[in-house]
Amino acid sequence: MHAEISFIGLFLQASLLVKLVMLLLMAMSVLSWALIINRRKTLNAARIDADVFEEKFWSGSDLSRLYQETNARRDALAGMEQIFHAGFKEFIRLQKQGRHQESLLEGTYRTMRVALSREVDRLEANLSLLATIGSISPYIGLFGTVWGIMNAFIALAEVQQATLAMVAPGIAEALIATALGLFAAIPAVIAYNRFSYQVERIENHLANFMDEFSTILNRQSAAGAQ
C-alpha cells in the first residue's frame, strides 16, 4: 500500500496527460534552477568587477594609461570597464576631429549610454524566461490537477459502490501536479524579483559612474581648450 501512495507509484499510475504535465513541470524547475545559478554568478561577478575597477579609477591613475590597459584586453571588457573604454575612445576620436566642447561631450555621453544599455541587456538575459516560468507553472499544474480529478470522478461513476480508497490515488496524483507547479514557480518568482532589483542597483551604479566620468572629461576638455 505504501508503494502505491509514493510519488513514484502515483506518477506511474497517472494518466498519460498528467504524466506529461509532471514531466514538463520538472523540466521547467530544472531549467529555472540552472538560470538562477547562472544569473547569480553573472550578477555577483558584475558587482565585484565594478567595485574593483571603480577603486582603480578613483585611485588617481592617469586616464590615458588606464585606457591603454583596458584597450589591451578590449575583447574581454564588460560592465564599468566597457563603459569607460567606449567613452574615452570616443572622447579621443572626437577630440582629434577638433569638435567643440559641447559636441565632444555629447558624443562621448551618447556612446557611454549605448554601452550601458548593452550591459543592462546582458545582465537581464533570461530574466524574462524566469518570469514566464514563475507565472505559467501554477496554471500548468492546475490543468494537470483538474484533468486528474476529472478522470478520478469519471472512473468513480463507473462503479456501483464508491469508496475513499478508490478515489484517493486519482486525487493524490492530481494534487501532485499542483505541487510541482508551485515547486517550479516559487523559486523562479523569488529569483526574478531579486535579480531584477540587483540589475537595477547595478544599472544605477554604472549610470552614476558614467555621469561622474563625464564631469571629469568636461573639466579635462575645458582645461585643454584654455
UniProtKB/TrEMBL annotation:
Coarsely, its chief localization is membrane
Topology class, membrane: Multi-pass membrane protein
Q: Name one Pfam family in it.
A: MotA_ExbB
The record's subcellular location field reads:
Cell inner membrane; Cell membrane
Keywords attached to this entry: Cell cycle, Cell division, Cell inner membrane, Cell membrane, Membrane, Transmembrane, Transmembrane helix
Indicate the segments forming the MotA/TolQ/ExbB proton channel domain, all copies. Answer: 79-206
Question: Membrane spanning segments where?
Answer: 16-37, 127-150, 170-192
User: Sorted alphabetically, which InterPro entries does this protein's record hold?
Assistant: ExbB/TolQ_transport, MotA_ExbB_proton_chnl, Tol-Pal_TolQ
- Domain of life per record: Bacteria
The entry assigns this protein to a family as follows:
Belongs to the ExbB/TolQ family.
What is the documented function of this protein?
Answer: Part of the Tol-Pal system, which plays a role in outer membrane invagination during cell division and is important for maintaining outer membrane integrity.
* Subunit structure, interactors included: The Tol-Pal system is composed of five core proteins: the inner membrane proteins TolA, TolQ and TolR, the periplasmic protein TolB and the outer membrane protein Pal. They form a network linking the inner and outer membranes and the peptidoglycan layer.
- Name this polypeptide is given: Tol-Pal system protein TolQ
Q: Which gene does this sequence derive from?
A: tolQ
